[in-house]
Design goal:
Layout lengths: L2 H14 L4 E2 L2 H8 L12 E3 L4 H14 L3 E4 L17 E4 L6 E5 L4 E5 L4 H10 L2 E2 L12 H6 L7 H4 L6 E7 L5 E3 L13 H5 L8 E8 L1 E2 L3 E9 L2 H15 L3 E8 H9 L14 E9 L7 H11 L5 E5 L2 H12 L1 H7 L3 E2 L2 E3 L5 H15 L4 E7 L4 E7 L6 H6 L1 H14 L15 H7 L2 H14 L18
Parallel strand pairs: 2-4, 3-4
Antiparallel strand pairs: 1-2, 5-6, 6-10, 7-11, 8-9, 8-10, 12-14, 12-15, 13-14, 16-19, 17-19, 18-19
Helix pairs in contact: 8-10, 9-12, 13-15
The chain binds flavin-adenine dinucleotide.
Length: 475
Amino acid sequence: MKRQDSRTIKSLEEILGPDNVLSDARDMAPYVVELRRRFNNPARAIAIPTSLDRLQALVKWANANRVPLVPQGGNTGMVGGQVPKNGNEIIVSMARINRVRKVDGDGAFMFAEAGVTLEKARRAADGAGLLFPLAIAPQDKAQIGGILSSNAGGLQVLAYGNARQLCLGIEAVLADGSLFRGLNGLKKNNTGYDLSSLLVGAEGTLGIISAASLKLFARPEGFETAFINLASPEAALELFRELSRRLGTSLTTFELMPDFGIAMQLRHGMIDKNPARSRSDWYVLAQVSRLPGQDRNGLSQGLEAARNNRTIKDFVISGKPGEQRRMWQVREQLSSAQSREGASIKHDVSVPVSAVPELIRTGCKAAGKIVPGIRPCPFGHLGDGNIHFNLSQPVDADATAYMEGAGKIHDAIYEIVAELGGSISAEHGIGQLKTGLLKEYKDPVAYEMMKKIKNILDPNNILNPGKMLDQAPEQ
Ligand SMILES: Cc1cc2nc3c(=O)[nH]c(=O)nc-3n(C[C@H](O)[C@H](O)[C@H](O)COP(=O)(O)OP(=O)(O)OC[C@H]3O[C@@H](n4cnc5c(N)ncnc54)[C@H](O)[C@@H]3O)c2cc1C
């Protein structure tokens, strides 16, 4: 260990206590590598504050000594925002600031600290007979601070909104160590700039979130889930229009999947049979939530009408948890099925909902021109205009050569997305993966505003440097 590093560790131990600092390479390993193993740079140390006071003291010290900090929650982010970029950073794990401070049933909100896992937050809401609706797969690991900082979406955005829309206010430690006290349980609060919203989705570049006020909702009594056969994304859009009109916000999920996604799962023994009534080129998984006293027939009536007017070919519907689980499993396994088919080039993009069929049509055509035999697997949240535009390698192609050509495909897909008025990052954020793309596609005035805000709130660039904005703010 370099002398400078051992001084740093000593200071950290004084601020946080020796049990809350890791500096051995083996101990640090789970914190520095992210799930997809795309980024693997060393950190100087892992700091694990156990209280708000200690977190403030740590940030104050880092600012005074110009030490870069990388805030980290559950380390499930997909764009490398939570792991080091330059190798000289200290990772600040929020795992030990993890209390649910309060659940207010009348106001329908809870105060949860940053290190509370999504699962724990959902359980706390459940305990009060309410629902915290955000739903993403790694719920046992992802933490409230990370979820808000990456403005996660997930499977129920259609009805409840993404993380930003589920947050009433936050508390955060700013770069100089001061505490921004934005926690409140107010539905109405018209007192100037919405600073909490600014920190939500900032990916740890403007402050370290220590707690958040989260909106809660009435808990559904049950769900109806349908697996629907369709001929095309155009038919899926038509069905979405029809179901939204009939069901409003009780329609919580509307996920599009190509047959290729199901064929892969059958081929690799990940499912025994297609949950749909028969094979078709496309499928939709739709789910409706039912509050106590609500009619349980809305979804089946909507689907009967769509079958009669030939928008859809067929459907199965179930209110039984076991059958629903089997339908969901197919949607949740799409990414891992793709991994078993070799390399895949991925895009987390959004366009206006009405443009989804065009995105899929033109995107597949463009990719096929660049790599003949490429196997598109576009799937996801059609109801949010958010498609995971994934492309599997041609059968028997060389995976490394395929990935080396990814740049051309990315350019083609992002160009189409931009032409359709869409976004190059729908829900996973920018991190260190998409800094160049952000600069290229963000409106230049908006990009300058972001740099100015960063410069004011973090003039020494100690908070997650090199993430989101690819250059240090001007001094
Ligand atoms: C299997 C899987 C499925 C997923 N599905 C979805 C999905 O459907 N929809 C979706 O939107 N996302 C999805 N995600 C990605 C999602 O964005 C992250 O899982 C989650 O939001 C990150 O939470 P985390 O606690 O792990 O944060 P981390 O990964 O630790 O951090 C994410 C970002 O937030 C910052 N950060 C973390 N904590 C704080 C804090 N307290 N203060 C300030 N900054 C902080 C980090 O620096 C980093 O930039 C999925 C991920 C996986 C692995």
